[in-house]
Amino acid sequence: MTSFLAVERAVRTAAPHALLDTARAALVEHYEATSVDLLMADYSLTVLQPVTALPHTAQPLPVHASPEGRAFGSQEAYGQDVAEDGAMDLHLPVTVRGDRLGILTVRLSRPRCTPETIEELTEIAELLGHEIIVAERDTDLYLQARRASRLTLAAEMQWQLLPGRACSRQEYAVGAQLEPAYAIHGDNFDWATTAETLTLTVTNGMGEGIEASLLTNLAVNALRNARRAGIGIADQAALADQAIYGRYRGAAYVSTLLLSFELATGRAQVVDAGSPQLWRQRDKTVERVPFEAQLPLGMFDETAYVAQEFRVLPGDRLIFVSDGVYAAATRAGEAYGERALARAVQAASLLPAAAVPRAVLRELASTRDAGVDTADDALVVCLDWFGRDEG
């Protein structure tokens, strides 16, 4: 534990750009590590990018066909023997409250790889993740390391607007993903939690490129501004509607699904203001959950919104999708459709919430002709509901 505390102190006091170098030096000194590497998951969640000095030239590793990817997918430490010197590489998840950032790989001699050491290094990897989130306020190093290619300006704006790609606590786990990851423009998701509630929004701004991103930025920030004023979701929708209409006068609007959950009971209020859809997997049944459709935000002046009641039960999985998923054209020229989406959700039943969106989007991509660009953003959000044990 003395070694752990020494590494923890070093990482917490490191300069933002020097987190890896500081952690590496401390792990060499206190755990006799012979190498330490940090890999960040890229925006598409397909590769793990090594953090190196700019420009980043180290070879990325595939998420689905590498030992590092195995640890990333399982979210458990994975040991890999290094034959040439009898050492072991420990691949450790770098994760913050369910948001999977990457992998920390530490090479130790086999005698040093005790269960106690592995447990301590797993905690150090989690600590490093928290420090990376804080450091991103002051350095671009870790954001740059996530890029397998250049982001469009619209995508840059959208990713900076997001709360993360996953979040978990006792009552629920959320995972989300956007595609095309490097050229997203109008789709967005957002969430916020308190001691007693979870607010979740799924947004689809009309248009393309920078104009769609600007529209969605206005909508999301208007909703956040209203939410942070402490008002209900119906009034949040109304105030965001006024902000968007005031700027675009009905020429542009935003489709949004807003939900507010009571963590203690599973009761929720819902405002369905447009195209995002909700699907529910309960036991072995996957079905769409329809709501009363209301006008998209900003379509008309001073639209009144009404919240509907909804109930989620422990064990439920909720899947939120944009029209870029359920209306996507397949090779046959048909819409992706309800049955295909239900099959994709069923196929991902055993995956954790953080991994489900990528799995559904991968299944969607497999129905398209290879090399064909998507015509629309595709968004998937997964919410696993565990409920609260009041006992």
From TrEMBL:
<protein>
    <submittedName>
        <fullName>PP2C family protein-serine/threonine phosphatase</fullName>
    </submittedName>
</protein>
<keyword id="KW-0378">Hydrolase</keyword>
<feature type="domain" description="PPM-type phosphatase">
    <location>
        <begin position="169"/>
        <end position="385"/>
    </location>
</feature>
<dbReference type="Pfam" id="PF07228">
    <property type="entry name" value="SpoIIE"/>
</dbReference>
<dbReference type="InterPro" id="IPR052016">
    <property type="entry name" value="Bact_Sigma-Reg"/>
</dbReference>
<dbReference type="InterPro" id="IPR001932">
    <property type="entry name" value="PPM-type_phosphatase-like_dom"/>
</dbReference>
<dbReference type="InterPro" id="IPR036457">
    <property type="entry name" value="PPM-type-like_dom_sf"/>
</dbReference>
